[in-house]
């Protein structure tokens, strides 16, 4: 582990250890292929990954949509992002107008050269780095679909060639999808079409574009 990674891990571990009334929790993590990880945060700072791997950190998507945070929790999150992100290992932060204001304000003021890229649908009090065309209702529907167990691959595949090239890395999601299909067929039911998560999809497309351009 390099000095930078060790410092980040120690900082976050210390914050989590002393956080009042909050036990460390495992973040929801998935593999999006091509070395891109997805982390969904429900509670701050407990859901931020503490474990680091040897060598340079890999790019990741951190989903902060609908997250509540006071000033202290937001400070811990922003410290993690600053240590974790770099131009060669960007962190694509998903946020929206319902992300805690304590997070939105500093995210809007971050330096573009840090490797933090904020992706989301713009509102009057929220201006992401990369704007996505969607609606509040559709974003909530797509977000909740994952909470109910819909595999990420189904929330991303209106254009399969862009997001489903890495078949091996998405095998777990595909197996889960196949099992659900089989169960529905056995019951003679019709499965509801999963909504596309446009915000997450845009982050994945940005990552794929950077990989194609050999920027990562």
SSE map:
Layout: H1 3-18, E1 28-31, E2 37-40, E3 60-63, H2 71-84, E4 91-94, H3 101-108, E5 116-120, E6 130-131, H4 136-147, H5 152-156, H6 160-163, H7 171-187, H8 198-212
Parallel strand pairs: 2-3, 3-4, 4-5, 5-6
Antiparallel strand pairs: 1-2
How would you sum up this structure, described in words?
With 216 residues, this protein is an alpha/beta fold. The protein has one domain (3-212). Helix content is 42%, strand content 11%. It has a six-stranded mixed sheet. Helix 2 (71-84) packs parallel to helix 3. The longest helix is centred in the last third of the chain and has 17 residues, at 171-187. The protein starts with a helix and ends with a helix.
Count of individual helical segments:
8
Structural class: alpha/beta
Strand content: 5-15%
Give a short account of the largest sheet: 6 strands, mixed
State the total count of DSSP E strands. Answer: 6
General form: globular
Rounded mean pLDDT score:
79
How would you summarize what this structure contains?
It is built from eight helices and six strands. The chain has 216 residues and is of the alpha/beta class. The chain has a six-stranded mixed beta sheet.
């Amino acid at each position: 582990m390099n000095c930078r990674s060790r410092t980040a891990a120690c900082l976050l571990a210390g914050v989590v250890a002393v956080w009042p009334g909050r036990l460390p929790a495992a973040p929801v993590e998935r593999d999006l292929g091509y070395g891109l990880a997805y982390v969904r945060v429900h509670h701050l700072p407990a859901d931020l990954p503490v474990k680091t791997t040897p060598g340079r950190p890999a790019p990741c998507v951190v989903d902060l949509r609908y997250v509540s945070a006071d000033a202290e929790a937001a400070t811990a999150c922003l410290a993690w992002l600053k240590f974790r992100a770099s131009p060669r290992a960007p962190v694509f932060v998903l946020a929206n107008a319902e992300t805690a204001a304590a997070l939105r304000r500093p995210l809007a003021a971050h330096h573009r050269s840090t490797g933090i890229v904020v992706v989301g649908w713009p509102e009057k009090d929220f201006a992401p780095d990369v704007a996505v065309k969607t609606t509040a209702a559709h974003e909530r529907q797509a977000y909740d679909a994952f909470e109910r167990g819909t595999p990420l691959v189904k929330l991303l595949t209106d254009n399969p060639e862009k997001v489903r090239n890495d078949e091996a890395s998405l095998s777990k999601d595909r197996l889960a999808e196949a099992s659900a299909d089989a169960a529905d067929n056995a019951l003679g039911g019709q499965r509801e079409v999963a909504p596309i998560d446009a915000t997450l999809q845009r982050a994945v497309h940005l990552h794929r574009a950077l990989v194609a351009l050999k920027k990562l």
